[in-house]
């Protein structure tokens, strides 16, 4: 008795597998659906096309100002803000005065400038005098070379003093005026390095300021960018140079960079895109939705989501063949909105059911309906 039971247990999986395969093969057979039945059940078909409307990925994005179009104005010297010359949202040109800073650190720097300018002037005169004496044969070449070397050293010290004042925020014409008149300035005026819009003013008259603290933020908002957080699984589909559309907005954007790093917490990849010229009505910080056509791949088809029927974990499409339909198994590669990308044994021009699929599934399974 025991050997027979053991044999039956061994044969049971084989029998079940055979039955499952037979059942699956039976279900995959064609089933007849007449034109009258299709009309009554509102079943419509459409031919498979390689150039059909692609699957569009939709992702949230935030409008931002590109880093190379922003300017953070800060003072290189400790001091006191005496005048704030602009207001938030004000449009400024390159060179527009923004804020005036009074600083005691300017005095020593200007003193070094005047000393360097005076020594350079004396060294220049000495060099010219020694050159004239050398040309007349009165002095040796060595004295001429020493005078010229002294002049070069003092010129270098003067350039260094000018550079220190430029770094402190003093403009070139202002530095030359100090040299020419000998009159020291007690304040510097910080100006816009490029045209733009004043985004924020974080300083008030009478406020003490320290070096490298942001005082005014100027941005060029005529050209904006997008920051997109894409799931890691979708990041591979994006390409630099790809065109994006903005849902509900006119205009397009172009992908400029794709981060090679995945954010630990969100498991997303940052994708940056520049908004193309002609796109208006967007503001930095605004949240929008971008749409990106999934690149076509060999052996895949983009079809309506309503064309796919599911049976447990398997997906099928119904292909019209004469007066019958055939359930063809497919693999769902990706989906977005009302479009889905599938691969399977399909050919261009074959007609697939795009509506009334629930009724076809019920007929295929031998049921009266149901999903």
Structure summary:
The protein is α+β, with helices and mostly antiparallel strands. Helices cover 30% and strands 35% of the residues.
Can you describe what's shown?
By secondary structure, this protein is an alpha+beta fold. The chain has seven helices and 22 strands. The protein folds into four domains: 30-55 and 297-364, Beta Barrel (conserved putative lor/sdh protein from methanococcus maripaludis s2 fold), CATH 2.40.420; 60-66 and 223-292, Elongation Factor Tu (Ef-tu), domain 3 (Beta Barrel); 68-103 and 185-219, Beta Barrel (OB fold (Dihydrolipoamide Acetyltransferase, E2P)); 106-167, Helix Hairpins (Orthogonal Bundle), CATH 1.10.287. The model is unreliable at 1-26 and 367-371 (pLDDT under 50). The strands form five sheets. Strands 1, 17, 18, 19, 20 and 21 form a six-stranded antiparallel β-sheet that branches. It has a six-stranded antiparallel beta barrel with strand order 3-12-15-14-13-16. The longest helix has 30 residues, at 106-135.
């Amino acid at each position: 008795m025991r050997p027979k039971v053991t044999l039956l247990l061994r044969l049971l999986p084989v029998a079940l597998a055979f039955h499952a395969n037979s059942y699956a093969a039976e279900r995959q057979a064609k089933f007849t659906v007449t034109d009258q039945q299709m009309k009554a059940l509102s079943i419509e078909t459409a031919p498979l096309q390689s150039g059909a409307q692609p699957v569009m990925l939709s992702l949230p994005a935030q409008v931002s100002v590109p880093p190379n179009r922003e300017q953070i104005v800060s003072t290189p010297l400790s001091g006191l803000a005496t005048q704030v010359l602009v207001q938030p949202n004000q449009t400024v040109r390159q060179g527009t005065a923004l804020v005036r800073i009074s600083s005691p650190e300017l005095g020593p720097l200007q003193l070094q400038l005047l000393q360097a300018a005076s020594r350079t002037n004396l060294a220049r005169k000495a060099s010219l005098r020694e050159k004239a004496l050398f040309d007349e044969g009165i002095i040796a070449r060595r004295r001429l070379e020493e005078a010229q070397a002294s002049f070069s050293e003092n010129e270098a010290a003067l350039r260094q003093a000018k550079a220190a004042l430029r770094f402190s925020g003093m403009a070139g014409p202002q530095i030359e005026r100090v040299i020419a008149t000998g009159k020291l300035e007690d304040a510097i005026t910080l100006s816009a390095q490029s045209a733009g819009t004043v985004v924020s003013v974080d300083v008030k008259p009478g406020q003490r300021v320290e070096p490298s603290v942001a005082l005014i933020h100027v941005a060029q908002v005529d050209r904006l960018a997008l920051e997109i957080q894409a799931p890691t699984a979708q990041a591979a589909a994006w390409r630099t140079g790809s065109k994006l559309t903005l849902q509900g907005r006119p205009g397009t954007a172009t992908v400029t960079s794709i981060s090679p790093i995945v954010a630990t917490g969100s498991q997303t990849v940052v994708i940056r895109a520049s908004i193309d010229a002609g796109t208006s009505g967007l503001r930095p910080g605004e949240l929008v939705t971008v749409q990106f056509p999934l690149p076509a791949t060999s052996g895949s088809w983009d079809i309506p989501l309503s064309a796919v029927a599911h049976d447990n974990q398997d997906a099928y499409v119904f292909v019209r063949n004469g007066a019958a339909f055939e359930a063809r198994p497919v693999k769902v590669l990706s989906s977005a909105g009302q479009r889905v990308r599938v691969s399977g044994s399909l050919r261009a021009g074959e007609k697939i059911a795009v509506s009334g699929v629930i009724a076809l599934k019920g007929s295929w399974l031998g049921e009266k309906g149901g999903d």
